[in-house]
Structures are given as structure tokens and as C-alpha cells.
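Dissemination and training. As part of the outreach component of the grant, students in the summer workshop were shown how a complex can be specified as a set of sequence lines and then modelled as a single object. The example used during the hands-on session is reproduced here so that future cohorts can follow it. Participants entered these lines:
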Amino acid sequence: MTVGEGQFFLYSYLTPALKAGHYRFTTSQQLSATASDGSALDATDLSVSGLQTHLDVTAPRYQLPPDQVLSTYPPANSEGSYGSRLPQIVMKRRTLPWERDAGTGDDKMPWLALVVIAEGEAELVLNRPVAECVTPGVHLDGAPDVPQGSYLSVRKSVIDKIFPTQKDVPLLVHAREVDITDTEMMMGDDDGFLAVVIANRLPVPGRDPAGDEVPVKYLACLVNLEGQIPALLPEAPAAKLSTILPLIEVEYQPIKVAEYDHIKMGNDPAYQKTRISADVAAPLAGAVAKVSAAKVSPDPVAIGQTRADQWDLAGAKSAESVYVEMAAPFGRIADVSAGRFDRTYRFPVLIHWSFTSTGETTFQTLMEDLDNGLLGTLPGIRPFGDNADDPDRTPQQLDGRPPLEIVETGHVGLGQRTRLGDQVRCWYRGPLLAHPADTEAPRLPLAHASDQLRIVVPDGREDLSLGVAFEIGRLLALSSPAVVTSLMSWRQNGYQVARLGTVWSGLVGELGAFLGADFAIAGDLGVRFGRGLAKAVTSSPNDVLGGPRELLTPGNPLPVKGLPLDLVIDGYGLAAAKVPRGDLLSALESLRVTPVPRLPLTGLAAGALTTTVRDELGGVLDVTLTHLTKGALAPALELNPVLGPTAADWKPAARPHRDALDEILDSGAKEDES
Amino acid sequence: MKLDGPTLVSELPLTLSTQVYEPVVVTDDDADSTMPASLRNWLVQLRLLNGVPFANLVPDTELLPEESIRWFYLDRRWTDALVQGALSVGTVNSDDRTLLTAQYDAIRAELDQEERNVRRPAGSPRYGGTVDAVSGFILRSQAVAGWPGLHVRAFNVDPAEGDTARYPEDDPRRMRLLRLDRLAPAVLFCLFDGIPTVVHIEEPRQGVQFGFDATGEGTDLTATLRPRDKTTFDYLPGDPIDVPFRSAEGASGVVDIQALQAKFADHPETGAVDGLDPAEYALQLIRFPWRQVFGDPQSTPVPQVFQPVVQYAELVGTFRVDR
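and obtained this result:
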């Protein structure tokens, strides 16, 4: 039978074929046959030894794997009006509540129960060895599934009050079959069969002496009842038709929004103390307990922050820390005059979560109070109405920021830093429009760069919407190596074939004249051409490529004019010493005795030294300068020897940049002036 | 035969640009068309804005305040530019770009068609045609974080059956969702294949709740429950049942299930005469999920959406063992 959309089936129980535990299969085989002489063979003649196989059926016992939980209600760590709804947990494994023997011998008796406790009623202890997790004296056979577990330490008097009775336990567990195609993919159950455990207690909000609602924090624990069913009441005591709401005395401490910030962020010790004291004093539900709790003044901003804080919890913190945090207020039992005959029991806790019952936040109120509007509707102030069409509705001004610049087309003015570094304002609009898209208009022509999609609108600003879209698409593609690989291989395969086909298509007709009309060009034509060319070249390399180059070449001759010895003599300035040419020995001898001309610089005063150097070098400089100037001016002087060079003859381009000569000229001129 | 290399190369782009590519009607998710299947599937996801940074969708927080729902139309030019940007990766020279230009119309036509098939149920025939106009909403609310798995249904007409009716998945008036994703723990993003007239947002069905109608007066709280017929799931005539609680001090809110069962026994239709079993008990306690209707001026307060059926089969046969 299949489940239609919008339907589900409820099953009273789905008992597994085998409960969890160690099993031994014993296989025995008996054969009988008749021998050839007609006599019957008995079992000893045909004995087959038995086979014994061991089998473990496992099931969670001290800890429920998180992936087995489909949902919990109320949502963990949430606040809301849950006073008329029974908490529940939905598990993916349909047979889980019946996979262990609760100790009663009844197959249909579940071993799980969901109990809801208020602060101070029981103590939740986390991460203890599993041997400590059950009441001393109770022994659970079989191997534990985890080394450490959590347990709930609770007194018999409290068990009698809030735990389900022995007859209640089976009624609170059932299985459900839903249509799997009708649900959102994010839930991810495989077969549509679910096991549901319901609590037996309404998480009612508290009342203060004045009769106002006070939030009460509850902890929901999925406990293991194995072997401890007798600890529960066999029958419920007398009932009555109303229940007393927990009376909680609260001292209100009006605070401002800024102080609320400090409390939330915990950065001011004074405010932190307020918060800590609120945590320490655990209220006892049902009894009058003094609590010093911070009460936030009903300010819209502060309420918003509370919500934002709740949203963070789901994503930001690791699951471990959330579990510890949720268990924190339930770490102690309020000291009631219990007496020592009030025995304490321990129940293993498979999973726990906490929530706060308060106010009137339900799914219904959340949806009905939604600020409903087209994108671009700015948040309004509630007194002026939630209706976006209300003419009295004024946009809400947030403190500390300029008003949002938004126009009817949905464009938003944003700051932009241009490529030249200027800070300007531009228009931006995402893919989400506040008005129907023009489906008749022609589609966007292909752009190859984002700059092609930048638009300057009549007010002079740039509209970067499409350019941004282009860049986002480009960056998203680049950020995924698989996509880049796919694009590149597509280009390499597809584009090269297209290119080749285009090149050859023009030549096919002419080739057809040679080869006949019904020839076809193979796809690897280019490769074949290349191979043919390589083959032809290698078969006669001398014809195509020429001979190999010689290993050694003589090199370029040096430009020597005259005899080497004469060059040496001239080079050392020995020509004046009348050294006989062609005689190496006398040349070397005269080189040895010829003194090196030097300037007598020692013994001179500093000023005299400068003067001497200047005189000596100045003469050389003058001569060189004269030569160079004359050389530079010579063509112009030849052109016009009388008047000298004209402006037309003087070409500044002849001195494109300053060189060493310019330096000399300049320094010479300065010397003249000084 | 004349072969002029330079002329050939310089005229290549012109020759390439004259080619015309016809869009291929895709018949299989894994079959290549004008482009490889892997690339096409990725581009289709990109078309539906997968991976686009949230700040590019909603440029300012004031456009999406807390506890708000914002409706929108999708800008085709924007998503086209997005795809063009992705296609521009690796176009090195003008030949590449010329050929991309020649192919682009076929690529876009294929994507137009394929984006309807993203959320197609497995095994159903492929949708043809192209998406005309796309619309959707962004919901930012505690409800998204607290009730994961919201159901969203869109209709192109206001259904005549009223807001409480049930609609099969293949109802011709229902519009298909192109995308339904949680962008953040508290932000739901939804795209419709068309422009709906009425949209239903419904509490998740796995999270069907159990409870009573509770009223608090002073320091006391009383609760009532209307019994149901276990086979038709209809409410029984007569007064609601008062829910009994345990009377012990400190047991605030603890329901006395045994006493409740005794009260059900007064109504034989509940099946409690021969003892209540767990499925019957759950059936009595079910509270309907809330369905919020957008677009309809008159909304019905308590929609009755489901027809749960009590099932007595113990388990499907694969588990059965004869003892």
C-alpha cells in the first residue's frame, strides 16, 4: 500500500524481527537414505556436523546518533508558545523504540520515553562512563555502543510526578509512514518510515505572582528505560481537570538597549554578574523560587537582536558545544526537603535538547506577522501599519546610517571605487526585480567582457548590474576547476574541429576536381600531412635541411695593421725613445728604463694642488673642447662660413640626451664664469 | 589549386561566424548537446542563481528585514549576463569568441529548456518548452530556522476548492518550483516557473504536532480535545473532552493519559473501548499544520489538510519471522 500525498499512516508498533543482542545460529542437518541392500541408514551413518554462527544485532543504547534524528519539536534552543503542544522527537529508524527489551518481556513495550523536565527537577550529567549511567544495582547485558554517555539523575518522588506511568509508555510511541516524494529534500529520510516518541507533559509557561506569563526553560530527554520499568508508577494517581502553572517570582530589572547589548556580548563585568546570577539561581517549577533575572524592556530593536541571536545558534556553534550549553541549567537538583528515603534513579539519556516556553510565538503567529511586500519595500514602523500600501507607512530609519537610496526600478545606489580610484556612487540591481520582467524584449546579446555590459544612465551614474553579473559568472566558473576543465576540453575538441572544417570547406571544391566528387576529408588529415612531411624530411635530410654544422670554426681574424712589435712600441709611447724597430730585446730594455711621466703632486698645499690639477688638465680640456666644438659645428660652418650656423641648421634633435660631453661642456662653462 | 595561407587565416573568423548552430532538444541528463552535459548541468544551476553571493541578490539589509517575506520577478538579462560571464572563461583569441557567438543562441535555448527539468521528479517525462517568466520569494524568518522542511505550493489560479483543500502533485493548476533552498539557517529562497496567483507555505508534515487546545486562566491551565472518529478522522459531535492532568504538586503540565483514555472510552468511535493503542492515541492528539496562504484576500483560520489513516499492519513482510 502506498501513501498518497497529504496522507500518512500511523502504526501502533513496528517490532523488529530480532531485538538487539548477541545471537547464535545453530544449524543442524538430518539425512535419511536407504542403502543398496535395502536396509535403512540411521543418523549415525549420515552424520552432518552442526554449524554454529554468531550474530550481533546492534542498536543505540546510551547515545542516539545525530543522523538518526529527523526532527525535534519544539525546535532546540528556541523560544515560543509551546504550552499547548506535546514535545516529540521523530527518528528515522522505524523499529528503534522496540529494538531492545524494556525488561517486561512484552514485544510491544518500547524501551524509550521522552521526559520533559523543568529546571531543578532533575540533574543531567554529561559524559560519564556508561557503567555509571544506570541506577546502581541495575545491570544491562551486552556491549555498550559508546564508552561514555549521559544520564538523568532523578528522585523517585519526581519520577512519580512527571514520568509516564508503566501503562503510558507504550501509548507515547508510534511509527508513521509518510509520502517521501512530498517532502523537502533537505530532510533526507530514505524510506518514509519514521518512529515518533511523544512526551506526556505540556511545557507550560510560568506565571509570576501578578499573573503575567514568565518564560520557563524546559529540557527534553530521550531516556532509556531498560530494566527500570518498575521504577515508574504502575498506575497514575488521581487526576484533575486543570494544571497549576509553575509560579515563578521574577525581579524585573529595567535596562536600556545599550545595556542589553553589553549583556548579550558579555563584555562588561557589571552586566555579566547580572547574567550569571540569573543562571545560578535555579527556579523550582511549582514552588516559589526567587530569581534575579534580567528583563529586557520591550523595545523593537532589542527584540530583533534576540531573534538574530537565536539564528546564530544553529549555524555558528558546533553541535557539541550546543549540547553542553543546553544541559547547563539542568546540572543540579533544587534542594527540596526530600528526605533520604527518596531514592535517586539514573536513566541513560540518548539525546537531549532544551527550549523555552513563553510568549505567543508559533508558526502561525510568525507567518501572520510577516512583513509582506515586493522586494524593495522598506521595513515600516508597526504603528503605521504592516500593509505596504498604507500611505501612512513611513520607512523605518535605522540609527547611524544614511537612508537607503532605492528607486522604483529596484536599483540601489551603492558606493563604488572606480579604476582610477575615485569614490563615486553607482546603481546596482540584483537579479530580483520588483516589477515584471519584460519577456518580449530581445535577449541580452552576447558579451565577451564585463565592460561591454556597463551602462551609463541619464543621470550620469553607471549602472553596474549586468557587469557585476558577468563578473560573478566568470568568477564562479573559474572557482570550479571541473567547470574550467570542461570548458577548455569543449573548446579544444569542438572548436578545433570547427576551425578545421572551415579551412577545408573552401578547398573541397578544388580538390574535388583532382580527386573526384565523392572524396571525403578525414578528420586526421592535418596529422597525416605532418607525418608525411616528417617522413620525407628524414628520408633525405641533406637535400632538405643541408649538412650538419662543423664542430669547430676558425673564428674572426683580428684587425692588426703592421707588425705586432711596432704596435706594442706605439702603444706604450716608446716611439719618442727611438727604439729600434724589429728588435724585441731592445724594445723591452728601453721600456724598462723609460720613466713614466707623472705630475709632481706631493708637497703641495691643498689650494695649490687644485690649481695645479686645473692648469694641467685645463690645457688638455681646452684642446679637446676646441676639437669637439669644431667637429660639431664644422658642417654648419661649411654651409655658411660668414654668419655661422643659423637656427635652421641647428638641430636640437642631434643631441637627444645628455652625455659625458655635455657634462664636460657645462662644467667648463661654469668654470669660466667662476 | 590555390592555397593562400595569410588570406585563409584572416578570413577564418568571417567563415566561422557564418556557421549556424541549432539547439539540441536534450533527452537525457547525461547526453551531450551543443555543449558537454556536465557543463550544461552546471550552467543550468548557475541560471537558477546557485552559488551567487547573497549580497549580490539582496544588496542591502534593509531590503530584507527580519521577519519578512519579499516577492520578486527574476531578471532574465541578469542571469543571461551571468552565463555569459561563465562562458567567457578561456576564450583566448577572436576565433574562440567568434565561434562562441555563433553557438550562443543555441546554448541559451538549451538552457532555457533545461532549467525546467532541474527539479523534475525522478522517472517523469522531461518538460519541453521554455520558461517564460520566473518569479519567487525570499523569506527571512524564525519559522525557517525553527521548522525546517517547509512546504511551498504555488498556483496559477486561486483554487476553487478553497484554502483548506488538498492538491495532488500533478494538479494542472499547480506551478512547479524551480528552486527551493535555504540560503542561511533563517533564509528561504524560492523560484517559481511562472507567476503564481496564490502561494501556500505550510508547516512541515514530518513535524506534525500533538497537543490540545489550552487556555490559561490565572495560575491554572485547562485543556480540551475534540475526539475524532478513528476511521474517517472527522471530529465527533458533542462537547470536547477536558484533558485530565496529574494532581500532584509540582507536576505542572503532566497529562494523565490513563484518565484521558477512560474519557475516550465514552466515545466508541475513537476505538478506545477495547483499550487505546498508540496509533489511536496519536490520531486523537494530532494538531494540523498551519498553512499560510499568500495572495488570497480571505484566508481560512484552521486548515484541515491531512487524512491520516490508522494502520494495524505490524510491519512489511520482509521483516516477518515465524516464531
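Residues 272-317, 381-386 of chain A have pLDDT under 50 and may be disordered. Students were then asked to discuss how this feature might be tested experimentally.
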